[in-house]
Amino acid sequence: MDRNVHRRKFLATMGLAAASGLTPSLGASANKNSKLRILQVGVGGIGGMDRNALVKHPKVEIAGLCDVNQRTLDKVAKGFPKAKTYNDCRVAYEKDMDDYDAVLVCTPDHTHAVMALHALAQDKHLYLQKPVVHQLDEVRMLRKAIAAKPGLATQMGNQRSEKAGRNQAIAIIRSGALGKVTSAWAWTGKVAKNTYFNGPWLEKYPDGQPVPSHIKWDLWKHCYTGDVPFNNILADKKWRTYWEFGGGQLTDWCCHLLDVIYLALDLEGPIAVQTDTPKPATAIGHSAYNQSRITYNKTAFTKGDHFIIHYNDNDIHPSNAETGIPLGSRFGTNRTIFVCENGTLVLGANGDLQIFQNGKRVKDFPMPKVAPRKHWNEWVDNCFGAKNELLGRLEIGTGVTEAGLLATKATRYPNRELVWDSKACRFKDDAPNKRLLKREYRDGFKPPAEFV
């Protein structure tokens, strides 16, 4: 689509004033000697890690910074005095996109889809923090967008994928050294009050507080149509606890725990999901002690007509007898297990890898050699035309996010199997489609019409 045509549609969608004199920009992939000029939306938290990693690449320039927290924005901007700054990313999208080649989105989950889709619509390379979207219907939209823009480099924020152990695990499974995979298991940490969560089954939002002068609270709410009062607990990190803004533990961690399963097994979309939970999720907050079973059709690497990922939160381990691991074994939080015909592979999120055969750990299992991976650099190089097989490309990112969202959404229908059509992004039954599929978008914060 012509860039000026998209700009006019963007202005109508986002409710902003028209701009004049718009001309197409020369993308980084076309200009081999240029810098990759990045607009970062969301500069605090995980955004700092991404930014600090990206600027180590000699061809990266942080050219724009956007955040609803003026205090955080001012602090970061001191390190990039030439960068333009914004509180409202729509201003950058409206007026200044010719100044950028790529967009880095590091904001709360509920904002991801709209920000990402408008960046892709304006032909910008995209680095998108996980989970890549917040709603199941947004999976469909994002897939439509990346299919329409095959020349753009996209990457999800699953930086752990560069760990050698995770790549060795993929190589072992794909080599058949342990036989075909009969099932996979993964589990997250505990669902409790901590740095990122505010506990399960919450019935209300935190009590309202005066909005600090440096916080643009209306912009933080973004596409949300309701009226939620400001509270620093919600605004800072613990938005993950609440349905309207985050996805609980299952969606928050799916991209670090399930990506390796998708990459190793060539999984296509799920065909069913069932999440067992002792108590249904509330209207406000996510539940806990969730045990989900996500069903797939077989692949060349799996045994049986169907394949199941067992995905739990709250540090719920599988039965050791069922997985072929010595009785009494414990592995801590955030683990992925492949149960195979000839052994079991246990993988930590940070790449620690163990093999078990015949009920015993095999300490001298021959580990394959894998090439070093550089998660952020590989994406930048692809923006300039390289052909790295990105382990976080959005074809994978949408898949694992879809799985995490299904596991989470199914807590609304506990202990019941929901049949899913991944290509259409719809449930077989109308009731969950009406309740779980999509959200309403606030005027001025809607996705681009071409991808809806």
Automatic annotation (TrEMBL):
Ranges for domain Gfo/Idh/MocA-like oxidoreductase N-terminal come to 37-148
**TM regions (residue ranges):** none
Q: Which GO terms describe its molecular function?
A: nucleotide binding
- Residue ranges the record marks as coiled coil: none
- Known Pfam families for this protein? GFO_IDH_MocA, GFO_IDH_MocA_C2
Superkingdom, taxonomy of origin: Bacteria
Among InterPro entries, the record links this protein to:
Gfo/Idh/MocA-like_OxRdtase_N (IPR000683), Gfo/Idh/MocA_oxidrdct_glycsds (IPR050463), Gfo/Idh/MocA_OxRdtase_bact_C (IPR043906), NAD(P)-bd_dom_sf (IPR036291), TAT_signal (IPR006311)
SUPFAM superfamilies according to UniProt? Glyceraldehyde-3-phosphate dehydrogenase-like, C-terminal domain, NAD(P)-binding Rossmann-fold domains
Gfo/Idh/MocA-like oxidoreductase bacterial type C-terminal domain location: 185-297
The leader peptide range reads none
Name of this protein: Gfo/Idh/MocA family oxidoreductase
Q: Which organism is it from?
A: Oceaniferula marina
